[in-house]
Amino acid sequence: MKVSVIMVSYNMCKVLRQSLAALHRSVQNMDAEIILVDNSSDDHTVETITNEFPEVKITTANGGLSHCVNQGISMAKGEYVLFLSPDALTKKETISKAVDFMDSHAPAGGLSVRMLNMDGNYMPASKKTLPRRWVTLFKLTGLLKQFSKSRLSEHYIGRHNDEFDTTETDVLHDRFMLIRRSVMDTVGLLDERFDRYGANIDLSYRIRLAGFRNYYFPKTYIINLQYNRSGKFSWANLKSFYGAMFIFAVKYIFRLPALRVKPLQALYPAYELKG
Length: 275
Known about the structure:
The chain is α/β, with parallel strands linked by helices. It has one domain (3-271): Alpha-Beta Complex (Spore Coat Polysaccharide Biosynthesis Protein SpsA, Chain A). It is 35% helix and 20% strand. It has 9 helices and 9 strands. It has helices spanning 13-27, 45-52, 65-75, 94-104, 132-141, 143-146, 181-187, 199-209, 235-252, and strands at 3-9, 32-38, 57-60, 80-84, 88-90, 108-116, 167-168, 176-180, 213-224. Strands 1, 2, 3, 4, 5, 6, 7, 8 and 9 form a 9-stranded mixed β-sheet that branches. The radius of gyration is 18 Å and the shape is globular. This is Glycosyltransferase 2-like domain-containing protein. Residues 4-185 form the Glycosyltransferase 2-like domain. It holds the Pfam family Glycos_transf_2.
């Protein structure tokens, strides 16, 4: 099987139906499977999706986002794993073009694509970079200085603002992350200590630490429906955001990550970008 699409939903049945309808068209000519992990929804998601999209493999979970994604990965059989947000609309060739790029770029570990809002406008967040507060964390802990020759030392708002430039990226955007399954087998699953925030940063970091490259691929796109953005500045969200920063610092600053790869010193060349 070529690609396994994993989606995690919590009380998003209405928008999920739109996303799955678009996704069905995107993979209908591919050797693909769609795995939906429903996180204990009470809006009849499981019943509705079972009836309307019988090809979707559905499982239920009760935990954080990373836990749910990992449960989906345990079911996946594809050469590639695609983490797709349930409020993202894919176009007909979105996934096939992304997979073709990965097939032709062996050093690529992961890929994200261009995002448009509902008005069709480019979203600069497509070229995901570390949030400014994370940059501050890296400076305070010395990690930024430690990797001064890497992309980590550049301006995180992104020097290359052209939305159509294919470039390497520090962080894969969590709304569309296409990752080689063999890379996942090397770097490990999502760290379930990261709940709402930080899991994609941590995974992207581990992919680069293992010597692979992450890419922003703009030759195709998704439409971001921006579902349920209320509560962005709620106490729970803020606690989760800053908690993720603390977890990351403890994991990588105060002790080395446990990875099944070469010693950290031997992997420094993975951070050197040519030209």
